[in-house]
Write a structure and sequence with these properties.
The complex is a heterotrimer of chains A (353), B (358) and C (324).
Chain A (H helix, E strand, L loop, with lengths): L23 E12 L2 E13 L4 E5 L6 H9 L7 E10 L2 E2 L5 H11 E4 L3 H4 L6 H13 L3 H14 L5 H4 L9 H13 L5 E5 L7 H18 L2 E6 L2 H7 L2 E6 L2 E7 H6 L4 H9 L56 E4 L2 E3 L4 H6 L1
Parallel strand pairs in A: 3-8, 3-9, 6-7, 7-8
Antiparallel strand pairs in A: 1-2, 1-4, 4-5, 9-10, 10-12, 11-12
Chain B lengths: L24 E16 L5 E17 L3 E5 L6 H8 L7 E6 L2 E2 L5 H10 E4 L13 H11 L9 H11 L16 H13 L5 E5 L7 H18 L2 E6 L2 H7 L2 E6 L2 E7 H6 L4 H9 L41 H5 L5 E2 L5 E2 L17
Parallel strand pairs in B: 3-8, 3-9, 6-7, 7-8
Antiparallel strand pairs in B: 1-2, 1-4, 4-5, 9-10, 11-12
Chain C lengths: L2 H7 L2 H10 L16 H10 L2 H18 L1 H4 L32 H37 L1 H15 L3 H15 L9 H10 L3 H15 L2 H8 L4 H37 L11 H9 L7 H28 L6
Helix pairs in contact in C: 3-14, 4-6, 4-14, 6-7, 6-9, 6-10, 6-12, 7-10, 8-9, 10-12, 11-12, 12-13, 12-14, 13-14
Chain lengths: 353, 358, 324
């Protein structure tokens, strides 16, 4: 359960974002896991921002650090071993990481909510779903038990759980996977968050149910104007629901831009590789062109560009331009064309060639 | 479009058994059924009902072809896999391998069947014994089926197999946990390959892998089929991967096959409402295609296989359902769409947008 | 498919093709530096655990004492006694004083280690044999075999270890059975195993059931491997870790149980030398010569503690839930 337990404050609903700036800004965030076998650099300086009503997709494979950054925002990192080694997280202009724990709770509880991939383990099996949804109101708003239940029914209606009034007293195991995911969404929405972080919300669901849940999220976002951070490995989901995308690799953002730009003309060989790796459903297609090799071990990230051992374009030694040796020089995330950033020494060639 | 195999994707399914080009029918599944009893009590178990995991599946697998079996979780596709490799006994129906009923096989015939029909599992972590070296895992089958590889030279054979699946042959003495998910899946493939199988049942072999690694394994499976000519039954829920690999495809819903045909037929002119809904739900990853398909959003959830609806299983979620659907289960026959679909009101419909020129 | 075909396709040219397509490409080797196996990880964890070092120091100390008692007895013979020294308290020459018969007590306590450890190890072996065999059969075959064996275990569980062993040892001599009737170390070990195997059985059974559902077991079954092969190659090696932890702790428990039985008068008989016997003899003299109870008790406690600490440390190291 993300935010239902532990919040004892009774913060009133947050004011709508006063300025037009981004609701959430992550700046140069570093997260590392200090384990017996050494330091694992899970997130190495990522920055992104989400505006009101916007959907930002964070696309990456397992071990790219995409979930860890979200856990850092929510303050639910397992620490130890995880340590936020640097950077800032600004929510409505205030740095959460500089606040004390109580202040953080007051901000996060009603301001930022999160839903997880595995709804079954995120819900408490011994309480009815109505109680768990209602707990958000009781804990944060001091609502009475009866009223909380009424709110719970309204929320269950809103996430389109059929016969909400009848099912409010059912327990999580009595719901199907898709319905459980809706229950979790209802809990997340209870306090009208400004930012909803969805960590692989549909990965565990079947495609037909997945489509229902993604539609629901889109509609809810339109109604409430919240910002949505969608963490996923599924390029199709990104394409269908996100406005902008940040591609992560080895704990770094390696490319950002609008989904249309990034998916039609990738500026980073890793993104190209991803696009070429997936078969299409609309045609049988020819042979797939996988990215060679394996994703990097975060305890031993390759020198220079972390992608260079797998990159078909990697240049080193005499072939490389000065200060742009893929094996030695880490490419910074830089603007490559209007509204787009990529962390590759040779993005322009990819874009123009 | 470079098609690696000349496996006749355009030949209609109905004529397939008569054709010689595809090769003989290796596996014939007829009316396959598997019920799991629901029991109560600890010492004296009382059967209170049945989960109809597989209920009337018909499928034929020819030599050298790939048949894709798609469906959502709980549709019984993994149970079909277990039945095929004789990990479970069917409750009803028959599986015939090279014309012989597997249920009636004894001793030697069954042993040969177990060698010739291999399985690759979904979970790359659970499918390899953590206490055995990679070499021992790959070579284990040879101690059961000693005739496949002479005792002498087994190590060399193992190394050749590892190299063939794209692993460093010097890794024979390493343990599974020293490998990443994709590498482990290759070890599982090498283990199956060591038996020189005729059929490999692939139970979601790439579902647990990262996108970039998934493509490597898909390509490996294709290459191996080109080289060794074995048949695949490829079970997955990822419709794109199934289309990419399969010559023919069967769509399962709640224990039975609802539509069957070549890859082009099932994806190009899906005729069962469930297939249409399924295909329309797949998110496309090309911005140009976004919003170009009709979305068919299904209502509700899959009913429990312990208590399936009468008549057509899909009727509870179907927008075409009529009275007849509740009383009469639709047969899996061709109703004029060129391939069989189990729907009284089957009607071909284009759901997936046609590929844009690249 | 013939062997020839298989051979053909394994030729280097083919592999080269795959390397070009990116498939057979030698990957960026992420496996290097991840050479740790379960046991080497466990060792890494153990090394940092002070409990392990205390436990193994004591354990080695007592094992050495059991094998080479003369190294520790300071030259004294446990059976060379002189009544004039009866119940002498500890002195610098005789660290533990003398017992009622005037025998050097240090030598007696030292020589007692062999009996205790022998019985501890023998009965743990017995417990393991019974527990692993019954547990593996019940867990692997399930069904009726499991139901029957589980009930049998429940029946044994209802009987406390000491009470069961006590009855068996009491009736032992009248049975005329070879080892049981002579009331030696073997008889005590048999009695302790016969009533101490149930926890091991349950542990093995639950482990076997958990491992049985793994895909690699399914893979071996699908390949046609025999039940025996599956059990010995796949299931038991993966089920063994918790059992090992349990048996280490149990050595200590069983050593204590032996002392209890002997103290109650049904275990070892004189002239055997054992801590249990020493405590029993000493108790009547507790007021006049408290050291006769004190020293064997301390040594007994230390031995039991050593094994329990080792077991605890081992459990911490092997329990994957405690490792991230």
């Amino acid at each position: 359960m993300t935010s239902s337990s532990g919040y004892i404050s009774s913060t009133p609903a947050l004011e709508p974002n006063p300025t037009a700036g981004p609701v959430l800004e992550v700046e140069d965030l570093h997260v590392e896991f200090r384990t017996r076998n050494g330091v694992v650099n899970a997130v190495n300086g990522i920055s992104y921002s989400v505006d009101q009503g916007e959907t930002l997709a964070i696309l990456g494979e397992s071990g790219s650090g995409k979930s860890v950054s979200a856990q850092a925002i929510m303050g639910i990192l397992d620490s130890p071993p995880a340590v936020i080694a640097g950077g800032g997280i600004n929510f409505q202009g205030r740095d959460i990481l500089k606040m004390n724990e109580e202040e953080q709770r007051q901000i996060r509880g009603p301001g930022i909510a999160m839903i997880f991939q595995d709804a079954l383990s995120a819900l408490n099996p011994v309480y009815s779903v109505g109680f768990q949804i209602g707990e958000m109101f009781r804990a944060h708003r001091g609502t009475s038990r009866k009223e909380a239940k009424q709110h719970a029914i309204e929320l269950m209606d809103r996430v389109r759980i059929p016969a909400a009034a009848r099912r409010v007293n059912d327990y999580p195991h009595q719901f199907s996977g898709g319905m459980r995911q809706r229950v979790m969404i209802a809990m997340a929405l209870a306090l009208d968050p400004r930012i909803l972080i969805a960590d692989e919300p549909t990965t565990a669901l079947d495609v037909t149910v997945q489509a229902q849940v993604m539609d629901l999220l889109k509609d809810l976002q339109r109604d409430t104007g919240m910002g949505l951070i969608l963490i996923t490995h599924d390029l199709g989901v990104v394409n269908e629901v996100a406005d902008r995308v940040a591609v992560m690799y080895a704990g770094r953002i390696v490319e950002t831009g609008t989904v249309d730009d990034v998916f039609t003309r990738p500026a980073m060989p890793y993104t190209v590789g991803l696009m070429n790796s997936i078969p299409q459903v609309e045609a049988k297609g020819g042979r797939l062109q996988p990215i060679i090799g394996q994703p990097p071990n975060l305890a031993r990230i390759p020198s220079g560009c972390p992608f260079h051992p797998r990159c078909p374009m990697a240049r080193t030694g005499a072939a490389a331009a000065p200060d742009r040796d893929c094996v030695a020089d880490l490419p910074p995330l830089r603007v490559v064309t209007v509204g787009r950033e990529a962390a590759c020494h040779y993005s322009e060639e990819l874009l123009n060639g | 479009m470079a098609e690696p195999r000349p496996s006749g994707a355009s030949v209609p399914a109905s004529t397939q058994t008569a054709r010689g080009a595809m090769g003989e029918a290796l596996l014939e599944i007829v009316d396959l059924q598997k019920l799991f009893p629901l029991t109560q009590g600890i010492v004296f178990r009382k059967t209170v009902g049945h989960v109809r995991a597989v209920d009337g599946v018909n499928l034929t697998l020819h030599r050298g072809e790939t048949v894709g079996l798609v469906g959502e979780s709980g549709c019984g596709k993994s149970t079909v896999a277990k039945l095929l490799v004789a990990l479970e006994k069917p409750t009803g129906g028959t599986i015939r391998y090279k014309g012989e009923d597997v249920a009636k096989m004894g001793g030697r015939a069954l042993k040969r069947y177990r060698r010739e029909v291999q399985i690759i599992f979904q979970d790359p972590y659970g499918s390899l014994n953590p206490r055995m070296t990679v070499g021992d895992i790959v070579a284990e089958g040879w101690s059961v089926h000693a005739d496949v590889a002479p005792r002498k030279g087994r190590l060399q054979r193992t190394q050749e197999l590892l190299e063939r699946v794209g692993l460093n042959p010097d890794y024979v003495n390493r343990y599974p946990h020293q490998f990443s998910g994709g590498q482990r899946q290759r070890i599982g493939i090498a283990r199956a390959l060591a038996m020189q199988p005729e059929v490999i049942v692939c139970d979601e072999p790439v579902s647990a892998l990262d996108v970039s690694v998934q493509a490597q394994v898909v390509n490996l499976l294709e290459d191996l089929q080109d080289d060794f000519g074995m048949s695949y039954l490829f079970i997955a829920h990822d419709l794109s991967v199934v289309r990419h690999l399969s010559d023919r495809i069967a769509v399962m819903y709640l224990g039975s096959v609802v539509e069957e045909g070549t890859e082009a037929q099932v994806y190009g002119s899906p005729s069962h409402p469930y297939t249409q809904a399924l295909l329309s739900s797949v998110p496309l990853h090309e911005p140009a295609l976004r919003g170009q398909k009709d979305r068919i959003l299904l209502q509700g959830d899959v009913p429990s296989p312990a208590d399936p609806p009468s008549g057509c299983r899909f009727r509870t979620r179907c927008w075409k359902a009529q009275d007849i659907c509740a009383t009469e289960p639709p047969a899996l026959i061709d109703r004029g769409q060129g391939h069989p679909a189990a729907c009284h009101f089957a009607e071909a419909r284009e759901v997936v947008p046609v590929e844009v020129a690249e | 498919m013939t062997d020839q075909q298989q051979e053909q396709s394994l030729d280097p040219a083919q592999i080269e093709v795959d390397v070009r397509t990116g498939l057979g490409a030698p990957s960026a080797d992420v496996t290097e530096g991840r050479q740790n196996s379960l046991w080497s990880d466990a060792w890494g964890q153990l090394r940092r655990n002070p409990l392990f070092w205390i436990g193994s120091f004591l354990g080695v100390f007592f094992v050495l004492m059991a094998i080479f008692p003369s190294w520790f007895a300071r030259g004294a013979d446990p059976r060379a006694c002189s009544l004039t020294e009866s119940k002498q308290p500890p002195s610098s020459a005789h660290w533990m004083g003398f017992d009622q018969q005037g025998c050097d007590y240090l030598a007696n306590v030292v020589y007692g280690a062999r009996t205790s450890l022998t019985i501890g190890l023998l009965s743990v072996i017995g417990v393991l044999l019974l527990g692993v065999i019954i547990g593996a059969v019940a867990g692997y075959y399930g069904g009726i075999a499991d139901s029957l064996l589980a009930r049998l275990t429940d029946i044994f569980f209802a009987l406390p270890l000491i009470l069961g062993a006590l009855i068996l040892l009491r009736v032992g001599p009248s049975t005329g059975l070879p080892i049981l009737s002579d009331r030696g170390a073997g008889a005590v070990a048999i009695a302790l195993s016969a009533f101490g195997w149930m926890t091991a059985m349950r542990l093995v059974r639950s482990q076997v059931i958990a491992v049985k559902s793994q895909d690699y077991v399914a893979a071996a079954r699908a390949m046609g491997a025999s039940n025996f092969r599956i059990l010995t190659r796949h299931i038991l090696p993966n089920a063994v870790a918790p059992v090992l932890v349990y048996s280490t702790i149990t050595v200590g428990v069983l050593i204590a149980a032996e002392a209890t039985l002997t103290y109650l008068g049904v275990g070892l008989q004189r002239p055997a030398i054992s801590w249990g016997l020493q405590i029993e003899n000493g108790q009547s003299l507790l007021r006049t010569a408290p050291h006769l109870v004190l020293f064997p008790s301390i040594i007994l406690s230390l031995t039991v503690m050593a094994f329990i600490m080792l077991g605890d440390a081992l459990r911490d190291a092997l329990d994957p839930r405690q490792r991230s």
